[in-house]
Amino acid sequence: MYYYDRKPEMSEEDIAVMNAIDELYTKRPYFGVRRITKHLEIPDVLVNHKRVHRLMQIMGIQAICPKPKTSDPNKQHEKYPYLLTGITASYPNHIWGTDITYVRVKGTWMYLVAILDWYSRFVLSWELSDTMNVGFCIEALKHALTIAIPDIHNSDQGAQFTAEEYLALLKLYETIRISMDGRGRAMDNIFTERLWRSVKYEEVYLKEYQSPKEARLSLREYFMFYNYERKHQSHKYQTPATIYFNRR
Q1: What is the distance, to the nearest Å, from the Cα of residue 238 to the centroid of all Cα atoms in its chain?
Q2: Is the CB of residue 134 less than 8 Å from the CB of residue 159?
Q3: How far apart are CA 61 and CA 53, in angstroms?
Q4: 117 contacts: CB under 8 Å, gap ≥ 6
Q5: How far is it, in rounded angstroms, from Cα 52 to Cα 45?
Q6: Which of 26, 39, 231, 239 would you label with 202, given CA atoms 20 to 30 Å apart?
């Protein structure tokens, strides 16, 4: 995941390509730069490897499959091992996962972060931001921690989740174990990836947000539906809220 204090200036063509990349990547998350470039077809718009690579960096996405090691992690950021090998979420607040995704808005784009309880699939909190600044991730975490404290907090190694301010908030709670995905292994956070597919196909791609305000209002309605009305087959068609709060 890449870190942007300010949103870069983009042309309408670039935004159109980003939207197309987002839809293709959501459908085929194992596609890397080259395969996405081959599959994109946008009338009257030049799509080449360099452009797709640049825009995927801005969007903060990469193929889910492991890649050759081409660079070392940023040594300025503290890293933690992946703790979830062979572990299945067994009760509410056993494992929380978090991630960031791209959300299109008319003429621009935003970033959505969510904190998900893996056992129940309950979305504890979410925030929408127009930059990759760590602040919106911290706000989401603060809100989630007012609801409960997890045993394990899992994230990728993105700059937001390895930021000193974010980790300091987790370290205030001595019982929280911090877990981080292997580099280039988005599938380690599979439940959050599935959440993004639901959000995109059931909400974002069905709407044409005209403004950030409209996007926030619409996403707020969706997450209420997702938590309290949308029934999950994996939980015998109970809602995430029913499982999370153990309602019967």
Answers
A1: 24
A2: yes
A3: 10
A4: 89, 92, 93, 95, 96, 123, 124, 150, 240, 244
A5: 12
A6: 39
In tens, the pLDDT along 20-64 reads: 999 999 998 888 899 999 999 888 888 999 999 999 988 888 765
Structure token digits, residue 32: 């890397």
Tokens of 87: 């572990």
Positive or negative torsion for Cα 97, 171, 124, 208: negative
By mean pLDDT, which of 80-94, 101-115, 178-192 is the weakest?
Answer: 178-192
Dist CA 120 CA 80 (whole Å):
25
Strands 123-129 and 108-117: antiparallel
For residues 204 and 197, the answer to whether their CB atoms sit within 8 Å is no
Structural tokens at position 153: 């907090």
Q: How does DSSP assign 22-53, residue by residue?
A: HHHHHH-TT--HHHHHHH---TT----HHHHH
- 110: three-class secondary structure by DSSP: strand
Q: Are 36 and 50 in contact (CB under 8 A)?
A: no
- What is the pTM assigned to this prediction? 0.85
Q: Is 209 helix (H, G, I), strand (E, B) or coil?
A: coil
- Continuous H helices in 49-174: 49-59, 135-145, 164-171
Identify the CA nearest to 101 among candidates 65, 53, 66, 136.
136
Query: Which residues have C-beta within 8 Å of that of residue 184, sequence separation ≥ 6?
Result: 62, 63, 65, 66, 67
Q: Map tokens 């490897």 to a residue.
A: 49
